[in-house]
Queue: 2 jobs
Job 1
Amino acid sequence: PDAVTVSGLADLIHVRLDHLQRVITNMGMGELHHDYMLTPEDTTAIVLEFDINPIITEDKGKDVQPRDLPDDMSEFPLRPPVVTIMGHVDHGKTTLLDTLRKSSIVDSEAGGITQHIGAFAVTLPSGQRATFLDTPGHAAFSNMRSRGAHMTDLVVLVVSADDGVMPQTAEAIEHARSADVPIIVAINKCDKPGANPQKIREGLLKYGVQVEDMGGDVQVVEISALKGTGIELLVENIVLLAEVLDLRAPTDGPVEAAIIESQSEKGRGLSASLLIQNGSLSVGDIIVAGQSYCRIRSMTNDLGKAVKIAEPGTPVSATGWKDLPEAGQTAIQVESESLAKEIIENRIGKAKQAETLKQIQAINAKRLVSH
Ligand code: GTP
Ligand code: MG
C-alpha cells in the first residue's frame, strides 16, 4: 500500500491505537483520527519513534529442534526403507503399487488420477518390510512430488515403454537429484505391443540418467505393473539398494516425523498422515509441527487399523490435532501440552514479527523510491 491509516499502522506494529495516537501527538503531528491516512514519510518517522529495528530480532522464547544424530548410526536398529514412486501421469505408478501390495487403489481413484501422496507399508515377497509413497504424475502436483522426494530413501522412477521420457519424468529426476536420493528405473508397460524399452534408456541419457546397460550405474528393470512381470526383480533391486544404504534409526528418544499430508475429515476431525523418522510414536504423545500441535488421540495404519505405537520408517494417520499441520513440516515430540503451547505461541509471535518487519521494510523502500 502507498499509505496506511493510523489504526492500520497500530495493527501493523502491534501497539494499541490510543497509545499510537498519543505518540503521534507527542511528536507534534496533532491529534489524528484513526482513519487518517499517514504518508510513507510520516509512517517511517513514527516507526522510528517505536525503535523497531528491522535487523536485530531477539529471541528468548522456547522452541524445539530435531535432535542431532551421530554420523555413525550403527548402534541403531535397521528400519524399513521409504520408497517413493514417481513418474509422468498415467505411466502406471499406482498400478505398480497395487501389484506390490495386492490391492486395487487405482479402481477407487477419481478418473484413475492420483491427487495426493499415498503412504503404504508393504511386506515384500522377501519378507522385508518397506514403506511406499505413491505420488501423483499430473503436472499440477509438483509440490507433492518434491515433498515425496525429500522424505524418501530412494525413488522408483516409472517410465512407460509405450510413451517415453516425458516432462514429469524429467521433473521427477530433478526432484530426486535435488533431494540427493538414488533412483531405480522401472520401465513399465513392457507387455504392450508398441513397447520400446531401449528408447527409454536412450531418452533418460539426455537427462543425465545413465542406466547399467548403457554404461552407467543406475539400476533399470523392465516390468509390466499390470501383468506382474519383472516385479520380483524390481523388488530385489529395491531390497539390495536399501541394504547398501544401511538405513537405521533410533526407536527411542523424542519422536520426529514428517507430515506427509493433513486433512479435515468428517467424524475424525483433523488428521495427518505421518512418516515416523526417529523414535516411536505412541497414542497420548504430544508432537509439535510448525504452528500446530497434536496430543495423539488415535493412530491408524494404511489399512485403517488402529495401532498404539509406530516405529521409524512406518506411515500412520494420527488424529488429535489442534490445527491442521502443514505438509512437509517435521513434527517433533515434546514432554507436555503446556510446552507445546508455549513453543507455538513463540513461533506465531516470531512469524508476526517477521511479517511486520517485512511490511515496514516495504514502506521504507517505497519512501526511498518516492524521493
Ligand atoms: P497418475 O497417478 O495419474 O500419475 O497415474 P499413474 O502413473 O498412477 O498410472 P495408473 O497406475 O493409474 O495407470 C494408468 C493406466 O495405465 C491404467 O489404465 C493402467 O491399467 C495402465 N497400466 C499401468 N501399468 C500397465 C502395464 O504394465 N501394462 C499395461 N498394458 N497397462 C498398464
Ligand atoms: Mg497414480
Job 2
Amino acid sequence: WAKSEGKSRWALFDPERNAREVARFRLSATMPAALERDEFYVDYQPLVALADGRVIAVEALVRWQHPEHGLLAPDKFIGLAEETGLIVQLGRWVLEHTCRQARQWSDEFGDDAPFVSVNLAARQSRDPSLVSDVESILRDTGLRAGQLQLELTESAVMGTAEDQTSALRKLYDMGVRIAIDDFGTGYSNLAYLRRLPVHELKIAGSFVEGLRVAGRPDPVDEQIVGALVTLAHALGLTVTAEGVETAAQAERLRDIGCEAGQGWYFARPGPPAAINRLLATQRRR
Ligand code: C2E
Ligand code: MG
Ligand code: MG
Ligand code: MG
C-alpha cells in the first residue's frame, strides 16, 4: 500500500490491470495439472550450417495447447512458470522429452543426426539438482552428452553465484554443449565470458534484422554482427545467428564468418516429422 500512495486512486483499482492479474494467476494455477494432462508439447527448429545448408542441430521450443485459450507461445507462460517455480518441473519435462526424441533421431540417422538444443531458464540453471537431472536423463535415454546443448541467456549466467558456474562447468566437462542465447541483448561481462565454460554464441535476431535488404544492409548492424562474430571466434566459440528470414541475410552472415543460421528462411519450428523429412532429404543428397 505504501508504495502506491503517490499514485492516483484510479491506478490502485485499475480494473483492466486487475483482470490481467487474475488471468495470469488462473493460468499459473492450472499449469501443474496441464503438465499432468500432457498439454505441453515441443516444436523443433533447425540450426543450419551456412557453408552447405546441412541441419546440424535443432532447438526445442515448448508450446502449450490450452483447452480454453488455444495454442500458447512460450512468451505467454515461461515467465509465469519462472515466478511460480514450476519452470523447474516444466523444464525437466522438456529436457527429457527432447532427449528421448534426439535418441530416436540418433538411432535413425546415426552420424547425420542433429544435436538438440534446449533452453534453460535462469531459475533452472540455479536449481541444485540440474546436473544430476541431466545425468539421469542422459542415462535413461541413452543419449550421448555431446548430442545435447543447453541455451542460457547472458543474464542467466553473468555475474551469478559461484555454484551456478560450477554446475555449468560440470555439464561442460561431461561433454554437454553450452550456448549463450540472444547474445548482445543482455549485459555481458567480457572478462567473465572469457572464463565461462561455453561452446557457442547465438546472436540475437534483432541484430540480424539489419542485414535484411540485399545490397543495402544497415551499416551499424553489419558492424555489430561482424564484431560479435570476431569476439566469439577470439574466444574459440562458434556462432549461430538467430532470426534469419531472407537469403540475403544468410549470405551476408556466411560472408561475415558466422557458422550457422536459424530462422524462417530455413524452416519454421515444427513437429518431429518435419525434421525427419528434412533429415531424410539430406541423407539422400
Ligand atoms: P529463443 O530461445 O531465442 O528462441 C527463438 C525464438 O525465435 C522462437 O520463438 C522462434 O520461434 C523464433 N524464431 C525462429 N526463427 C525466427 C525468424 O526467422 N524470425 C522471427 N521473428 N522469429 C523467429 P518462440 O518459440 O516463441 O520462443 C520464444 C522464447 O521462449 C525462446 O526464445 C526461449 O527464450 C523461450 N523458450 C522456448 N521454449 C522454452 C523452454 O523449453 N524452456 C525455456 N526456459 N524457455 C523456452
Ligand atoms: Mg533459444
Ligand atoms: Mg534466442
Ligand atoms: Mg530467448
